[in-house]
Amino acid sequence: MVAPNAALAYGKHLYNTTTASGQIILSSNNGKPARKRVGFAFPNLHDEKRTHVGTACAAHWLGRQQQTLRGWACFEDGPLRPIRVNGRLAWPVAEIRRLMGVERVQ
C-alpha cells in the first residue's frame, strides 16, 4: 500500500510533468485530466545531411508506420533495404529520396 502523501506527490508530479516531444503527457483541462500526444520534429528530407536515419524518421518521410518498415526489413520484401548496425536498422537517405522523387537541395 502506498502512503497517502506519496500518492498525492505522485499525482502532482504526474499532472504537472512536461516531457520531451513524442511522449504522452497528462495535462489539466478545467481540473479534469486529459491525455495529449506531442509530435516529434523531424528534419526536412530536402535538408537531411545524414547518410542513414532511424526507423522513426524514415517512416515519417515515407508516410508509413514504423512497424511496416520493420516488416520490410524482416521479410526483405519492401522497396528499401536497411543496413543493420548492432541490431538497429539504419535506412539510407539517398534511397528514400529516390523512392519519394525528391532532389537534394545543395
Helix-strand blueprint:
Elements: H1 4-15, E1 24-29, E2 32-37, E3 52-53, H2 55-62, H3 66-75, E4 83-85, E5 88-92, H4 93-100
Antiparallel strand pairs: 1-2, 3-5, 4-5
Helix pairs in contact: 2-3
Biggest sheet, open or closed, and with what strands and sense? 3 strands, antiparallel
Give the terminus-to-terminus CA distance: 61 Å
- Give the overall average pLDDT: 76
Shape: globular
In angstroms, what is the radius of gyration?
Answer: 20 Å
Number of helices: 4
Count of individual beta strands: 5
Helix content: 25-40%
Summarize the structure.
36% of the residues lie in helices and 21% in strands.
Describe the structure.
There is one protein chain. The chain is globular. The chain is an alpha+beta fold and 106 residues long. It has a three-stranded antiparallel sheet. The protein has a two-stranded antiparallel ribbon with strand order 1-2. The chain contains four helices and five strands. Residues 1-21 have low confidence and may be disordered. Helix 2 (55-62) crosses helix 3 (66-75).
